[in-house]
Amino acid sequence: MRRWRYFGYRLLFALPVVFGILVLNFFLIRLAPGDAASVLAGESGAASPEYTELLRQKFGLDRPVIEQFFLYIANALRFDLGFSFRNDAPVSELILARLGPTLLLMLAAFSLAVAFGTLLGVLAAVARNSWRDAVISVATLICYATPVFWLGLMLIVVFSVNLAWLPTSGFEDIGQGYEGWERGVDIARHMVMPVAALGLFYLALYTRVMRASMLEQTGMDYVVTARAKGQSEGRIMLGHMLRNAFLPVLTMAGVQAGNLIGGSVVVETVFGWPGIGTLAFNALQSRDLNLLLGIFFISACLVVAINLIVEALTIALDPRIQA
Amino acid sequence: MSDVVLTLDNLTIGLPKGADRAAAVSGLNLTLRAGEVTCLIGESGSGKSLAARAILGLLPPRVTVTGGAIAFDGQDLTRLTQKQLARIRGDRIGMIFQEPMTALNPLHSIGRQIGEVLAIHTAMGATARRARVEKLLADVHLPEPSRIARSYPHQLSGGQRQRAMIAMALALDPKLLIADEPTTALDVTTQAQILRLIHELQREHGTAVLFITHDFGVVADIADQVAVLRQGEMVESGPRDAVLNAPQHPYTKALLAAVPRLAVPVRPVEAQGLVVLESIGARKSYAAKGWFARGRATRALDGVDVQLHRGETLGLVGESGSGKSTLARAMTRLLAIDSGEIILNGESITQLTTKALRPYRQKIQMIFQDPYASLDPRQRIVDVIAEGPIIHGAVPAEARLRARDLLRLVGLDPSAAERFPHEFSGGQRQRIGIARALALQPEVLVADEPVSALDVSVQAQVLDLLADIKAKLGLSMLFVTHDLRVALQICDRIAVMQHGAIVELGTATAIFTAPRHPYTKALFAAVPGASWNQSIPAAAE
Fold this sequence. Notes:
The structure holds 2 protein chains of 2 kinds. Chain A is mainly alpha-helical. Chain A has a two-stranded antiparallel ribbon with strand order 1-2. The longest helix of chain A is centred in the middle third of the chain and has 39 residues. Chain A is globular. The N and C termini of chain A lie close together (about 10 Å). Chain B is of the alpha/beta class. Helix content of chain B is about 40%, strand content about 25%. Chain B has a 6-stranded mixed beta sheet with strand order 6-7-8-3-9-10, with helices on both faces. A 6-stranded mixed beta sheet of chain B has the order 16-17-18-13-19-20, with helices on both faces. In chain B, β7, α8 and β8 form a beta-alpha-beta unit. In chain B, α5 crosses α7 and α15 crosses α16. Chain B is globular. The two termini of chain B are about 35 Å apart. In chain B, about 45% of the residues are buried. At the A-B interface, α9 and α10 of A face α2, α4 and α7 of B.
């Protein structure tokens, strides 16, 4: 079908986009002063210029930038993201170990925000100007205005410290040696607060967008047509308005996939979540350029992938989209 | 033919506080009979659409029936709950709307939307519904019903969409069909086909039809009974011929007099002036955009040669997509053409840059279709009019003074200068638009459908004003319209356009009395109420 051929084109376009990001990242990161050698040398305490130079030679940092660049691109195309001298491990290994928790956190926060945002938005629109609408509006405004790190800290204070319902941080209780189902429950318990901290802002945002979008649909001609057919109000809402109103939310969610990754750095730091965010933060502080580049690259791929998924969903929902 | 299907008894519809009047419709009495088409005619704001919606309980929020009764099938519809009404809607009363694009859900296939009516009101299974939908689509003369059923609204033409709407409204053979301006958004030839279709189906099934319209031509074509509504009150009603040919109420008479005649008014013949503006072999196509898009360019202008003479009004007539607006925009250089030449006063302006074009801009001024969208809502009228001359170097104080003179010229009070656009009616705004165009003392006026958005009585006034000003100031005018009646009234020569080319060009009289091209003939045949229109004596004015 023509619509899916259009999706095929978008898929093809994703490749040069990822490549462009690769190139851009490589040069951007060299704009910052300092490199891994100077940090390592500095930490070793008694670093002479000769020792620093030796490190540079060992890491290949003394070669011309252009040579380093081609080497990097050639390796990246073979999915070899280089070696983190700082961590003494291949970059891809480091990232893979952290990718799971981050994906879990992001996808959970993202899908919950979209699902509940849509639901709350519909509820608010249906009960427009009633107390329910007012409660939802005030709640979303608060979520919208609260900084993520503060929300995270408050969640810890209330639910972990005072009520002792949930663990304060980490991915799981390794010491307990849980397995199978019990391990899943344990991880889920650890996830509750990070997901809430990361997702509430987006949930509030999508609630507002969905509410406005639903109200806009209320006045549409096709709604009157559906009524003139004798359709019930409930079915008009679910069968006709919901899908039309959801499209703007979906578009917005796709645009924000990138922000979500940025937000996860803060959340992972607050909750000690062993994800890509904390890894990136550490790599940045120790000038571990190889690792940082690898993380950038993976994040970019993630954003591109989420955008493609959103695009596919939009095409599936809206028959008007075609090349 | 006198089974009463529906009776409006002293129906009064209240408007929310703060509206321009207390009741949208007051004390309306109307009887609809099986097999008859009753036209409810009125200008915008007359309450005709609200009266139609009240029958199905589809009034907008805060607008309510405050008095009277709607008797249908032994029930008073005003006393039913929404649930009870829902059982009648779509089953025993069907409704079609003005704009078939927005009236259909863009995300559902045509088949699903028609099938929905069957799913709500009958116990038919999915297969039976699908078969019935295809039969319904065939009944409204849509080709390849099974393909249409699978299509989405955006894949169909305006006429096809309206046919699908009609199929939906008539799916369960209702006793009453309410049609709210169902042909207003369509091209004339399509309009004629849809009117014929409604007429045919209604005769076949003995359906009572309540037809809302603002066009007496449509009334002449389709009505059995007519009711004229003004400001929510019915001023006259009766059989079609009586109302059209022997109107009693002064308002009806005035409305009828304002209907543009399908005739060429007698005009003094003038010698053709020199050519002011000319297009030589203008071509313009819109290619499908994007790296992977292939071929299929739309040809909007296909080598158009046309000359506008000094002091003449040249009409560009055609249906949507014929290229008439594109040509007007190309000749004013609002749009770049792919090849060909645009020549103003003997100078080619085709290749001029935006900056070099500026001195020529003031010689050609435009009047737009939508008087609501074409004025900046936050600008005072005096600034709307004086802005152009000031840009071109006029002394601001003088330009503002002249703006007041121009307001007088277009028939408005100079005190209007200090007010804002929203304080004026559509007709008044169009006058302001004309004053704005005149402020730059242009040689050529380009009017793009300047009266299409206006009520018929206002339309006549604006046309008179345009003709008057053109004569007074010796302007040349390019007049774009879809309405042959309007073109005949105001244009000296008419160019009929189809598929981006001029298929026939001649004096208004020649085009009218002896059209040569089949498309011109088709356009004339499609004019609503053509035969009635020609029968009314010009002396009625």
